[in-house]
Amino acid sequence: MEPVGFVTNPEYRLVGVQRRIRLDTADWTALWNGEYAPRMADVEASGEGDACLGCYFSTGETALVDFVMGKPARADAHPAEGLVLRDVPAANYAVFECSMSEIARTWRAIYSEWFPGSGLMEDESAPCIEQFRPGCHEGSVPVRIFVPVIIPEA
To answer: Number of structural domains, the chain?
Structure first.
């Protein structure tokens, strides 16, 4: 398992539905279909771009995260009640690609295979991000997983 590349993302704001979840027991279908889908029009009204993001913000507790399903916010965003605006700091990311059906396996491989031999550390000040672009459900484009990393100074 190797990243397809490294990128530096600028700081931005995210608008979406936030839920505190345990990574080991999360019901992903219920989150996306039951929590996000009914609010999609509200997120679209304050968001921009064609990709939907799943962002994992650290809570400081192992396996417990604030999971935000949403989009980058427009500069003039005024989210509907019940939605959140979260700041996503600028960060360096290792980018991985997979199919929808391989998301869980890809996450396991990143942390069990790639990270131990990469020489890099995770940047815990920034969220991990899943990017779902149009076509990813059909398999015509990959899901992208962005893992924040600390790149040593040369």
So the answer is: 1
Q: Which amino acid, one-letter code, is at 21? A: I
* pTM recorded for the entire structure: 0.94
Expressed as residue numbers, the domain containing 54 is: 5-150
SS (H, E, C) 66-97: EEEEEEEECCCCCCCCCCEEEEECCEEEEEEE
CA distance 140 to 40: 22
pLDDT digits (tens, 9 = 90+) for 42-82: 999 999 999 999 999 999 998 899 999 999 999 999 999 99
Residue 16: CATH number of its domain: 3.20.80.10
Q: What is the pLDDT of residue 125?
A: 94
The amino acid occupying position 129 is: I
Query: Could you tell me which of 77, 61, 70, 118 has the C-alpha nearest to residue 94?
Result: 118
SS3 percent helix, strand, coil of the chain, rounded to 5, is: 25, 40, 35
